[in-house]
Amino acid sequence: MIRSVTRFLVIVVFSAGCLTTPAQAQQDTSKAAVDPPTHAKPVGSDEQAFATYPLITGRIAQRGGINGNISATRTVEGALSRATYELADNAEIDEIAKGYAQRLGTAGFDILYECEGADCGPTFVRASPGYRVSSSRFRSTPESQHYLAARKADSSGDVYVGIQIAATNAGVSAQVDTLRVKPREIGAISVNAAQMANDLDTKGRVALYGIFFNTDSAEVKPESRPTLSEIAKLMAERPGLRLLVVGHTDSRGTFDYNIDLSQRRAGAVVDLLAGRFGVERERLKPWGVGYSVPRASNNSDVGKSQNRRVELVVW
C-alpha cells in the first residue's frame, strides 16, 4: 500500500494583531473542523492573523515551485493556523488520508483536489507546503506523498483545508494548514466617485482594491459591484473623461503569464462597465502590465496583496 501525503487546511478564528503561543495553537487544532489522527504527536505550529496562501488545486508539473505553477493554485487570504505532526512509523498514509477525507465530508467540506504519489505531479514535492516550511521532514519521493484540499462555505468566511503527509527515512510527518477567509470589508477598500476624481485630478491615476478575481481567472467577482458602480458614477459626472483601465498582478508566475492575465482582467472590467453599467466603451481602454509596476516589494505577502490591483489612469 502506498504511503502518501495529505495536505489539510483547518480553521481557527484569530483576533487581529493577537497571536497565540504554540501550546495554545495545539489546543486550537484540537477544536478544528477535522481532528488529527489519535496517534499524531504535535511537533510544531505557527499562526498568522493574515496570510496570502497558495492552495494547490491541480497537478504540479512545472519547475519553479509555486511561482512556476501558479495556474494550479488558488490564492486564499485570511487567518492561518499551521500544525506539524509526527505519526507512528508504521502508519499507513493511505488510511490516514482516507480518514481525513471521511471526516471532512461529515463536517460539510467539499473536496477541491486530491492526489497521491506520482499523480500529484513530477515537481509536486518542492512546491508542497510541508517542504516550503520543513524540507527535511517532507523531502521524499513522489510515491510517498498524498495531498488533499477542501473547502466549506460559511457565512462568516469560507474555510479551506489542506493536508500534506509524507513518509521519509526519518518517519512519517503531516502538516496541517488551516485557513479561514476573512470577509472582505467592501466599504473599507472601496473608493467612491469623489475620491476617484480627486486622485485623478491630483495624481493622474487611482488604485482600486475593490475589484476581485479568483486566482488564474479574469471573471470579475460579484462583490466588485460597489466599486464598479462608483466608476460608472464618476464617468457619468464627467462626460469628457477617458480612462485607461490597467490590470496589475503580483510576481508569482512567469512574466508573459501575468501580462496576459492582467490584460484579460482589465478587459473584463471594461466589458462590465460598458455592458452592465452603461459607460461608453470608447471612453475606456483596457491595458495589462503584469507585475512590471509594483507598489510594494513582492518579497512579502503584504506586498503582493498591494500589487494586485486595478488602476484608472487619465487617458
TrEMBL record:
Organism name: Salinisphaera dokdonensis CL-ES53
Spans annotated as Disordered: 25-44
Protein name according to UniProt: OmpA/MotB domain-containing protein
Ranges where the OmpA-like domain occurs: 200-315
PROSITE patterns in UniProt: OMPA_1 (PS01068), OMPA_2 (PS51123), PROKAR_LIPOPROTEIN (PS51257)
PANTHER family: LIPOPROTEIN YIAD-RELATED (PTHR30329:SF21), STATOR ELEMENT OF FLAGELLAR MOTOR COMPLEX (PTHR30329)
Keywords noted in UniProt: Cell outer membrane, Membrane, Signal
Signal sequence region: 1-25
Coiled coil: none
CDD domains in the cross-refs: OmpA_C-like
Cytoplasm in keyword set: no
Cellular location(s): Cell outer membrane
Superkingdom of the organism of origin: Bacteria
